[in-house]
Amino acid sequence: MEEKVNQIKEEALKEISNAKAMQELENARIKYLGKKGALTEILKMMGGLSPEERPVLGSIVNKAKSELEVAIQEKEEILEKEELAKKLESEKIDVSLPASKITRGSKHPLTRVIEEIEDLFVSMGYDVVSGPELETDEYCFERLNLPKGHPARDMQDSFYISPEYLLRAQTSAVQARAMMANEEKSPIRIIVPGKTYRREDDATHSHQFNQVEGLVIDKNISFADLKGTLEIFMRHMLGENTNLRFRPSYFPFTEPSYEVDVSCFKCGGKGCNLCKQTGWIELLGSGIVHPNVLRMNGYDPDIYSGFAFGTGLDRLAMFKYGITDIRLLYGNDVRFLNQFDRKD
Ligand code: FA5
Description:
By secondary structure, this protein is α+β, with helices and mostly antiparallel strands. It has 11 helices and 10 strands.
């Protein structure tokens, strides 16, 4: 029996040493050490031996098994090294080549504009606040002097979720929220950048767009404060030589109301394609907070007055960066976005 074990062992060692690939080595392991392997089969025959012979044979077989295991492990290491060397040879990695460039994302032009506006207004003592995009009819319209059925609601074709809830059509909704949330009814100085939604879609209108709202409430706030603030705002965003033109307009939550045009920064006001030869570009709505709005949201209009404005951020970004179609801002095309990849 011992001779048989030795014979199997020698045969196995030969096969192990001749193995040229991992699979051949594995085949040898199964053939000799596997469940039905040659040495395992010998162990199974021990039942027919005398009690004295059994431990002797057991130890011979176990010794042979561990010798084969060691041989397999050693051969495995050799084959692994050989395979790695072969791979390195065939891949021919040139370590002197420059590493492939990691593409870095860049800030979206809208994010840049929002951050620029926030920095400016924070430096003037404003707070940046936000409100829900899924808004109630009450805050989006009713508390802004636009009761149900008011004809001015037609100017904002809105996405209603239910008769009471809609995707907010204007950040002005946060005017009412800020006034209601202020329990002491103390002065307010806020800007509200955020997403707004209307049923519109063309090169200059998107169903989802961004606005920034401004609201100041204090004692003795006048049109002069509104005008001065908007001049600082627009000159900061569009250039020091920007002029403003206030045109009387109508918004139910401000009285008087103005639409504000800025002098065309492309032609300096002479007239060009961008400003449709008028020299002016319409940019925002504004006005003096309507006494009804103050009253409805808990402020006494005999003590307090205020101004508010709301501008489309997308349009501002389009003018600032010369973008011709609003849909480019929402297309997620990296070729477009990469153009704004600056170091800041
Ligand atoms: C308003 O939304 C008022 N809430 C602004 C306001 C605030 C007036 C405070 C008075 C006091 P208007 O509907 O004009 O106004 O929209 C304001 C700006 O949002 C527009 O000048 C335009 O720049 C932008 N805007 C409006 N609709 C769209 C749209 N579909 N896509 C992109 N920008 C839009």
